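Hello again, I could really use a second opinion on something today. I've been staring at a protein lately and its backbone has me curious. You're getting the sequence in one-letter code plus the fold written as tokens. I'd be grateful if you could look everything over and explain what you see. No rush at all, and the record is pasted right below:
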Amino acid sequence: MRRVIAVVLALLLVFAGTPRTSAAAQATGSITGAATTTAGQPLGGHVVRVRSVRTGETVATATTSAAGSFVVSNLVPVSYVVEIVDGAGRLVGASAIATVVAGGTASATVTAPSKQLVGGIASAALITILVAAGAAATAGIVVAATGDEASPSD
């Protein structure tokens, strides 16, 4: 009798330690997409981070191809945001929310601001010139309206 009880207990311990898998636990999906600049240039070789919308945690990473495309598989069916990170670890763009369903493939597009030259002038230089021009125009309007060219500090 003791031997039977020992065998039954041993079997219970063996089966209790065996992980259970269900169809729901194995049902995953994927996200596929592309990362480009606003000028349409692919963002090749960038890190892809998949972040859970619910928890805010990064759940998977990948790397974009030379053409800027990416595929991230084995994702639990929930909503995610895809982030693209450059080589220095800076976030350069993020997608809209992509919802993964079991056995399905969600699509995500990430568009990062372009760093290319605009009319031969870098974007930051162009912004500086536009701000300076706006300030000069505002000063001209104030002088024209008041007729006073003197500085307020005089």
Helices lie at 2-16, 23-26, 123-146. The CA atoms of residues 77 and 100 lie 5 Å apart.
